[in-house]
Amino acid sequence: MRRLLVTGGAGFIGSDFVHYVLEHTDDSVTVLDKLTYAGNTDSLRDLPGDRFRLIEGDICDQQLVDHLFDEHDAVVHYAAESHNDNSLAGPAPFVQTNIVGTFTLLESARRTGIRFHHISTDEVYGDLEFDDPERFTETTPYNPSSPYSSTKAGSDLLVRAWVRSFGVRATISNCSNNYGPRQHVEKFIPRQITNAIDGVRPRLYGDGLNVRDWIHADDHSSAVLRILDAGVIGDTYLIGADGEKTNREVVELILEEMGQPRDAYDLVTDRPGHDKRYAIDWSKLRDELGWQPQFRDFAAGLADTIAWYRANEEWWRPQKAETEGKYAKVGQ
Ligand code: NAD
Ligand code: DAU
Question: What is the domain count for the chain?
Fold first, then answer.
């Protein structure tokens, strides 16, 4: 039984990982989370009290981080400012949490020698042309576009340097777009589902033809656990599930599942610097660590996600009006 410290465990993917670990292992979990607008303690309800605890705190607080690293066997680092649109409106917290926060954790990892896994994104590689036959691999050059993705790229490079220079026992994973329950309503899929529930037409940026490579959050969690258990120190692993779809295709599926006309959406102002397409080659994870995604049917996973938002309005409703207010200011 390991004692895991999970940063950002009150967010979307971090909380999915906490649930996944508590269900599938004997490990105990401590979540360190600042509970920003994106952290939600309701995502961590009903977890076993003898194996789970939540510490409210900032990953930039070196004293707190040092103390927690001394009490644990491994760290999985999810905490981040995660939303591209917010990073365009105000990049400062992205630099602070994503870069300074990761630096703070790495300094404790260096001191303690603890096993460290860093969660990152495929966006560090920039974007692909729509007709490019290649997908991102572990050797694709870094070329981030937004303040968010550039701070994630910076954090990855810090991890690589701390491995090489100081022998920190770290791995990195870069995953594509996640979907599933407990994702903040600022993000594409929950925003459109909750708009449709509210009788508001979904909003697509630009021409709606940008492509994202969707993976269910539970598949992301199982891949991270596999890398934590069997990954080679210093290595990077790409996580994906062959889920490429245009944004239009996703919205049409949502509308169809919710019993509305497939074309009942609007095209709105595009995101500045909007990445065209992401696509992940996850063959290293399959060939070297024997991992496979379980959620192969996107439409079925999406239908379950829609059902979750319908059944859990008390989880998302408090954030909906403020989130839509922010979008309204920029015509989105
Ligand atoms: P999220 O915004 O839902 O959650 C982030 C969590 O981090 C929140 O609970 C927030 O309170 C916490 N946090 C923020 N700043 C903090 C700080 N200074 N100290 C402690 N906690 C802090 O994000 P998410 O979508 O769950 O993403 C989690 C991680 O996964 C991020 O590192 C992100 O880059 C990465 N990632 C996300 C996706 C995706 O599709 N959402 C895909 C690939 C990688
Ligand atoms: O690829 C991994 C990344 O996926 C993660 O690193 C990020 O943390 C995560 O937020 C996500 O980034 P995206 O920018 O791809 O996700 P977002 O949900 O913001 O948007 C998905 C796509 O949908 C993108 O092409 C923009 C578009 N979009 C988004 C919103 C909110 C719309 O067309 N309309 C919208 O209302």
Answer: 1
Q: Which atom of ligand 1 is nearest to the CA of 77?
A: 32
- Residue 159 belongs to some domain of the structure: yes
Taking the whole predicted model, whether its pTM rises above 0.85 is answered as yes
Q: What is the pLDDT of residues 112-137, one digit of tens each?
A: 999 999 999 999 999 999 999 999 99
Domain annotation covers residue 207: no
d(CA 218, CA 66): 30
Question: How would you classify the pairing of strands 244-246 and 211-213?
Answer: antiparallel
Assess if residue 266 is contained within a domain: no
Q: Going by CA atoms, what residue is nearest to atom 31 of ligand 2?
A: 188
Range of the domain at 48: 3-184+215-244+274-295
Q: Is residue 86 part of a domain?
A: yes
Which of 17, 82, 179 most suits a substitution to test ligand 1, by most atoms within 8 Å of the C-beta?
A: 82
Residues 81 and 87: their CA atoms lie apart, in Å, by 8
Interval 178-227: pLDDT, tens: 999 999 999 999 999 999 999 999 999 999 999 999 999 999 999 999 99
